[in-house]
Amino acid sequence: MTADQDATTAPAPVDVLIVDDHLMFRAGVRASLDARVNVVGEAADVDSAVEAAHALRPAVVLLDVHLPGGLGGGGAEVARRCADLAPTTRFLALSVSDAAEDVVAVIRAGARGYVTKAITGPELSGAVQRVAAGDAVFSPRLAGFVLDAFGTGMGDVAIADDELDRLSAREQEVMRLIARGYTYREVASKLFISVKTVETHVSAVLRKLQLSSRHELTRWAAARRIL
Amino acid sequence: MTTTPGPPPAPPQAASPGAPPAASGAARPPLLRPDAGRRVGGVCAGVAAHVGIPVRTVRLAMILAGLSGVGVVLYVFWWITIPVGDPHVAAEESRPAELQRLARRLSRERWTFPVRDVLAGAILLAAAGILVAERLGWDVNAGWALPVLVLLAGLALAWSQLDAAQRGRMLSHAGGRTPGSMLRLGGGLLLVLVGVLLLVGRTASTADMARAWVAAVAVLAGAALVLAPWWLRLVRALGDERAARAREAERADIAAHLHDSVLQTLALIRASADDADQVARLARAQERELREWLYTDRAVSGTSLAADVRELVGQVEDAHGVPVEVVVVGDCVPDDASSALLRAAREALLNAVRHGEPPVSLYLEVRADAVEVFVRDRGDGFELDDVPPDRFGVRESILGRVQRRGGTAVVESRSGWGTEVHLEMPRAATRERPPAPSPGPRTADVPTTRTDPAEEAHA
Predict the structure, then answer these.
(1) Per residue in A161-213, pLDDT tens?
(2) What's the rounded Cα separation, in Å, for the pair A160 and B195?
(3) Which of A102, A141, A181 sits opposite B359 (nearest CB)?
(4) Are B312 and B318 in contact (CB under 8 A)?
(5) Cβ neighbours of residue B327 under 8 Å, at least 6 residues apart?
(6) DSSP-based three-state secondary structure for A72
(7) Per mean pLDDT, which range of A51-60, A97-106, B212-221 is the poorest?
(8) If we measure between CA atoms, which residue out of A221, A223, A225, A215 comes closest to residue A102?
(9) Least enclosed by CB within 10 Å: which of B92, B299, B306, B437?
């Protein structure tokens, strides 16, 4: 994630709820976040996270993918049960797991992005701010998952923009560059488009990932070894 | 086949056959019928092991007793009541769990007497003999023979379930209730019922028979009703025990893994606590391994290019202590061309972690027609023309290696932006190409690629 895109704006701190079942990790995240973020609460399991989100109404919930409690659905369950808070409270998935099915599940449940726990404090703060502003936050790894999930390796390209089951050629390009480690700004300059346009593409991809009924999305993880 | 009961090599104090173990009073093996070393049902071998006398003596005594008839009854009684198991192994297992070894003990395969086949043959022969005798004019009163035969067959069928040697095998196949064991029980019951009724009701009228039927079924139903709770509890306890055993095995597996990996790494970290770089490296390597173990299904080695790439990146991370973000899209079975691509990618990655600045990323995409690799770093960049000609790193081991196999390689480097190496290797083309017969030694794969012209010539 990039901090460079956030230097231009200096808005009020973003209210954040940290949801993770490890006290040490919550403390670490709290310490690493900078002044752009204001931690309003913490929760350790599914039920208390849903409760805290409804009580505190934070702008962003930092959501661990693997959580105890509830019906066993982890972070995805929290996001689903907080769907009624939709426009004001947004979710950013934070995971130590590299497993695509875990991450894609929480994105499809409504999270606006995914970052790994190896992320640095300033990067995380920047990501929180972008999610609060309504943008999607794609780490290279999530971009890779998306490309995998939509079968873009097989040259499957959407013709119309509103097609849910496939990415457009431009969206694929953007996803590829993000997967290659480019920041949004670098993607913009490489494709000769504005950062805002990049963000539009990324949001469109996120929407497709959340809404698509493409059958691969549910069983692609099993099939990805067979090419 | 040896005549000794064949004590397994596990308990060293019981090594000398025949002679009872020194501490036989304290640690006497339980009374079990061993699978190994049995002649018929393993009764003699089990008794011999339990009492601590040579099996030959027990067998002789049993045969002598059998002549009088008592021995047969005793043998069958023991056969039915003594459970199957290896007495020595059972004695070992009764020790506390933490003292036991984790690995399974080896067992020996032994030839066993095919009791059931012989029994079936004998019954068939007897039936045939009766038929032949009748045909020859002897007045065989066969009226009782058939019911008795049916009765015996039913009993044998039902009791044969208790021969747990086979039962255990069936259980392990089907995880408990097999159709075979149910069929056996049902068939046995039916045969016994028919046999008893035929035997008892040979001279009775139909009305008496019917009444006897009703009475028998009522008694059976009553008994079943009374015994049902006990039976249910037994079944439930068995299920619980099985689940507990599965959990135990799982825990042992996890404990072994934690010991092999995490514990060792923690010890290494403590040993090199003042070396921050080394600690970070160890922690990162351990984290990667643990994450893989926890969250991913591992592929069989040699079948997944994605797994190979991750392993390669892990090696580079460990060796240089620089984190690398690796993203893989798609997967395929590695072949010659993709291996060359990987080696080139490794060189590019090594350059990135040595000369560039983090974050370093590696992106690999497997498409239908080609495999692409991008290696990106955020260093100051460099000019390819500025690299002295005697440095083979970029030109030969990265660009040359890919280009020789029909791929393309592009290096993009700008000051302040970093360096990106883009490698692409066609897939379809590499499939059509026959495996190149290499005339010279394949030294071209070693990073120092001064012998490359030879490969270039044939490629």
Answers:
(1) 556 667 788 888 898 898 888 888 888 988 899 888 888 888 888 888 877 76
(2) 79
(3) A181
(4) no
(5) A140, A141, A143, A144, A179, A180, B361, B362, B363, B364
(6) coil
(7) A97-106
(8) A221
(9) B437
Residues of B in contact with A180 (CB under 8 A): 327, 361, 363, 374, 376, 420
DSSP SS3 for A82: coil
At residue A1, the pLDDT reads: 45
Whether A79 shows a pLDDT value over 80: the answer reads: yes
CB-CB under 8 Å, A140 with B367: no
Q: Which among B449, B435, B441, B350 is positioned nearest to B397, based on CA atoms?
A: B449
Q: How far is A83 from chain B (nearest CA, A)?
A: 27
Both structure tokens of B449? 């690629």
DSSP state of A13: P
Is A139:A15 a contact under the CB 8 Å cutoff? no
- The ipTM (two decimal places) reads 0.77
Interface contact A153-B367, CB threshold 8 A: yes
HEC assignment per residue over chain B: CCCCCCCCCCCHHHCCCCCCCCCCCCCCCCCCECCCCCCCCCHHHHHHHHHCCCHHHHHHHHHHHHHHCHHHHHHHHHHHHCCECCHHHHHHHCCCHHHCCCCCCCCCCCCCCCHHHHHHHHHHHHHHHHHHHHHCCCCCCCCCHHHHHHHHHHHHHHHHHHCHHHHHHHHHHHCCCCHHHHHHHHHHHHHHHHHHHHHHCCCCCHHHHHHHHHHHHHHHHHHHHHHHHHHHHHHHHHHHHHHHHHHHHHHHHHHHHHHHHHHHHHHHHHHCCCCHHHHHHHHHHHHHHHHHHHHCCCCCCCCCHHHHHHHHHHHHHHHHCCCEEEEEECCCCCCHHHHHHHHHHHHHHHHHHHHCCCCEEEEEEECCCEEEEEEEECCCCCCHHHCCCCCCHHHHHHHHHHHCCCCEEEEEEECCCEEEEEEEEECHHHHHCCCCCCCCCCHHHCCCCCCHHHHHHHC
Which letter, b or e, does each residue of B19-41 get, where b requires 16 or more Cβ atoms within 10 Å of its Cβ?
A: ebbeeeeeebbbbbbbbbbbbbb
Chain B environment of A181 (Cβ under 8 Å):
325, 359-361, 363, 374, 376
Pairing of strands B408-414, B418-426: antiparallel
pTM of the entire structure?
Answer: 0.55
Residue B366 pLDDT: 86
State residue B443's pLDDT score: 35
Which chain A residue lies closest to B295 (C-alpha atoms)? Answer: A99
Instruction: Report the 10 Å Cβ neighbour count for A171.
Output: 23
* pLDDT at res. B455: 38
Q: Do A144 and B368 touch (CB under 8 A)?
A: no
- With CA atoms as reference, the chain B residue closest to A152 would be B367
Backbone angles phi, psi at A155, to 5 degrees: 75, 35
Looking at residue A134, its amino acid is: G
